[in-house]
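User: Can you model how phosphoenolpyruvate sits in this protein?
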Amino acid sequence: MRVPLIAANWKMYKTVAEAVKYVKELRGLVKDLDGVEIVLAPPFTALHAAAEAARNSNVGMAAQDLYWEREGAFTGEVSGQMIREAGAEYVIVGHSERRTLFGESDATVNRKLTAALAVGLCPIGCIGETLDQRERKETFDVLDRQIRQGLDGLTSDQIGQLVIAYEPVWAIGTGRTATPQQAGEAHSHIRGRLRQWFGQEAAELCHVIYGGSVKPDNARDLMAQADIDGALVGGASLDVRGFLQIVRGARAPV
Ligand code: PEP
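Assistant: Here's the modeled complex, given as structure tokens:
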């Protein structure tokens, strides 16, 4: 059975001091919680300090992006090895803000996913349609293209280690959440394609989590859908108490 995963994407919020304070508070609040995996993605500047503050707790760390080269003259970039050494086990790849604001494509997402897996990071690969695409009834075609091109060349074993975040672009940071039915349909479609293209075992192991205006009051209904294995939470993760409520709502029966 897939243990639900709740990941906090802090985007460009929280200083080192703010991140450490949050982690210290959260680790105390969740120390006896099982049946859920908890991951925080602070900005790069706070990653190491946050990982140190989370050491020996049940709170894991993610980076928000990586570059695919190991090292070199790539000003502003950070490699997978550097992220591992800073204390993260996960990395978000291809977030819609990276795609729309920083020109990332399915091809760059593919290189980043491959690089992350090669250094033992678990990628959280983001896919999802825009509002225009949904209204033109292209959602499933867009997801198919993002899965095919983004996951090109990965083995079934690697797919089994992956987290895919379905994040409809129109629901990110807008307060407009997909209904549990809309999200459930998209997740079943994604799981079906993974089964078709990478096999039953890979499809069963891969986590498919939902992102897009997840809040304490809608998390439980979303998470109740059969193919939703957790959430990637942006805005609502910045407040530790609100995030805790989402984490509690996602727990698998233990
Ligand atoms: C995100 O950043 O991945 C996200 C889903 O943001 P929000 O929860 O604010 O919509």
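A couple of observations from the model: The radius of gyration is 17 Å. Residues 5-163+175-208+216-250 form a domain with the TIM Barrel fold (CATH 3.20.20.70).
User: Helpful, thanks.
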